[in-house]
Amino acid sequence: MRFDEAYSGKVFIGSCPNYGESEVVLYGMPMDWTVSYRPGSRFGPGRIREVSIGLEEYSPYLDRELKEIKYFDAGDIPLPFGNAQRSLDMIEAFVDKLLNDGKFPLGMGGEHLVSWPVMKSVYKKYPDLAVIHMDAHTDLRTEYEGEPLSHSTPIRKVAELIGPENVYSFGIRSGMKEEFQWAKENGMHISKFEVLEPLKEILPKLMNRPVYVTIDIDVLDPAHAPGTGTVDAGGITSKELLASIHEIARSEVQVIGADLVEVAPVYDASEQTANTASKLIREMLLGWVK
């Protein structure tokens, strides 16, 4: 991908045209090659950009405007359809470039497996990395029906890379019994069902540490986010997720990158999910880029 000129397609509202001047690079990872239920999340990044035109650039939550930071929308990484390993390698190389250039990487998925190469890249720069993970699902499987490259495996992969004690999952309400047992036996933090209150308890433990945040849109209840591949009843509200983003923003945690994944527009007839995701991206930009 080229960074010497602006992305020629639709960009997220307020994006600046100059990569060199940017603090943040927003990019899409349009991959859904390994999903086990409903595909379509590869179209998520594009739709999030398109609906962002309806956003206000000012956040009343944070009293900041998008013009206060410079972010460059690089568009979608041109991933090879159906080739999971090559796609993951391309994502890792892309984020390596961003980090080497001193940029804050903010990714949009795509299925959740796309977060794995990003976290691999970030870990190379920040060996004391911690990960905050918000999701309906544990994503702690080692494989799915014999396939280790699966959207059900990224958190297990990163836990084995950086140490389970450095991974903190919130909002979890679905997974195999063995996944919960593995987390408990290996010192990984899992907060079932809720996000905000347990997050408040954990954040002081992560003060002054580099933290990567990965958010699967299905942490929200399907009433708030129907447009996703694997809906799961009993989730949190969009208000609680916004409050959780703001809680991280107010903390002493050093967020060094983030992603929002699993928006699938084909199941989002009212565009409710895409609009929510777009607002979440705005709050992540304004809250986590100091």
Automatic annotation (TrEMBL):
Gene3D superfamilies: Ureohydrolase domain. GO terms for biological process: putrescine biosynthetic process from arginine, via agmatine; spermidine biosynthetic process. Signal peptide: none annotated. The keyword Transferase does not apply. Mn(2+) binds at H112, D135, H137, D139, D216, D218. PROSITE patterns: ARGINASE_1, ARGINASE_2. It catalyses: agmatine + H2O = urea + putrescine. Its cofactor is Mn(2+). SUPFAM superfamilies: Arginase/deacetylase (SSF52768). Catalyzes the formation of putrescine from agmatine. Belongs to the arginase family. Agmatinase subfamily. This is Agmatinase. It comes from Oikeobacillus pervagus.
